Amino acid sequence: MNTAYLCLGGNIGNTQAIFKKAIEQIESGIGRCVLKSRLYATEPWGFEAEQLFLNQIVAVATELEPHAVLEQCLLIEAELGRTRSGNGYQPRTIDIDILFIDNQIIDLPDLKIPHPLLHLRNFVLQPMCDVAPKFVHPVLKKTMAELRDECPDEGRCEVV
Q1: In the 8-state DSSP scheme, what is residue 39?
Q2: Domain region containing 136
């Protein structure tokens, strides 16, 4: 059994209801959600958007291999209305990023674990500290709390 840390994000539609559906689908397709962070209202990262995002971290106990977790995340996103145009960051109904799967390090063209930008994103680190503040990044060798304290991202990240 592995623990996958997933980051949910979205800013189109009823995001809280979409997250609830996403977590239900995660539990039926990936594994049992053992921990959930609080919900955070956050500024868009890497682009401009009128609507704030909501972000949440879920820790999932799973027996799936990493590529199967990725496939399930993409399927859930599509079922909940996510469309991809390939034009960089943009508003979305839901995004499900794999941050970690235990201490695995995977560097493939279609799958990178740990997520390569998580240490630069307050909207990831703050909710990660809700569920696993002492979890050590397997590449950077720092806890989530240390990475949050060092994070250069000053964007809004407030509990809803």
Answers
A1: P
A2: 2-159
